[in-house]
Amino acid sequence: MAPAPSRITSPLRSLLLAVILSASSLISASAAPSRPPPLSGDLICHTSNRSDCYPREFQPTHEFRIVHDDQDLPPGLHVRLNMQTGRKEAKINVPGEQDASLDGVPVDTGAIVVHPSQPDQEPQLPKDAPRYSPDGKIKKPPHESESFAAGLTMLRDGVVRPGHAFDEALVGLEDLSHDTYYGLRIAEDTEAVKALLCLMTGHNTPASTDTFVPRDHQAASILAGALQNNPSALRKVANAWPRFKNDKCAKGDDVQLGQVLYSSFTPSNNVDAAAAVKQSASSVKAKVSVINGLIKDKRLRGEFLRQNGMSRLLEVLLPKGQEWDGAQRKAGQLVLDNFLDADMGAQLGQWPRGSRLSVEQCKAQGTKTSEGCWDYHVARIMKENPGDDDHWSADLARRLAKARGQEMLVLEEEHREL
């Protein structure tokens, strides 16, 4: 008698079932996204919230993840700089693997950073490799703008000139200043930079007609554009600053440029009765952007602090009204980027200096802009934006409290009467 069919086909069915389960497991594993490993071991915590912590030693996966500035990076990883965010990223290195994010992107000559698998092993670069520059390659355009050269000539010839041509030249320079090449060209022209600084500090310098923004605002926009993400341009301006700060902008001036630069952005110096509040606030925002760019240089940052710049910057937080939101956010970002947020390149420990002042002192007319009142005014703005944990004032309040060695709960208790 023949054996039962079920007994004949049982081994075959088991084999098929094993194959199906194995394939299903492989598909699930390949489809599952790479997740960051759970937090364990030595952690770095900049706040009291554990969800903000991260491991002291970077834990790689098969996908690129952000590397914090204070993390230890194991050797042998694939490391890259994300040009959109400016952040360093790393993952497990796979020899011969192509970066899918570069598909369709033209690649120019540059430098490759290799993290050796052995700490003492020096990477071997080809003898004809291009010279490495931390600023990247600055490419000259095929045909340089004629209007750009004409605008620089106007600035060198004289700070204030009547007529539309000068205002149109400033607009053209502002458009081009955001380009790395043209930004550096502006910074290299010391006479043009001095002219722009003098225009910027000339408080409410009117344009030829109402169709153009005031010239102090326009000059600040040009300088801010040239300095933004352009280390080479910043070095040029910073190296020339010792000469600029002792200069006077016009014959007969009693005040040197270095004495007015760090007060040029205060609201009181940008009030024009004939102009809308929105225009005044916009000018303040542009000028704070210039200061934010300049103090990326440690020499100018130290001078800014010595010149009582933080008290003057605090004045930007005093006006109320939606028109001032942009200028106040820019002032808050300056403090975070340069003094409190290490991930953004801040040099911790330089500021705040001194003790926090009381609520009564920060309400008094004579002391409300003291450096010790930053906590008070930031807390006021934070209270005006309830429920917005991502608001710049909330981040600044937390980091400022940490820098002073205090807990946010203490500050919130003291500022309930705001």
TrEMBL record:
InterPro entries the record matches: ARM-like
Q: Where is the composition biased (Basic and acidic residues)?
A: 128-144
Q: Which UniProt keywords apply?
A: Signal
Return the annotated region ranges for Disordered. Answer: 114-144
Transmembrane region positions?
none
Q: Which residues form the signal peptide?
A: 1-31
- The superkingdom listed in its UniProt entry is Eukaryota
Q: Per the record's keyword annotation, is Signal included, yes or no?
A: yes
- Name of this protein: Nucleotide exchange factor SIL1
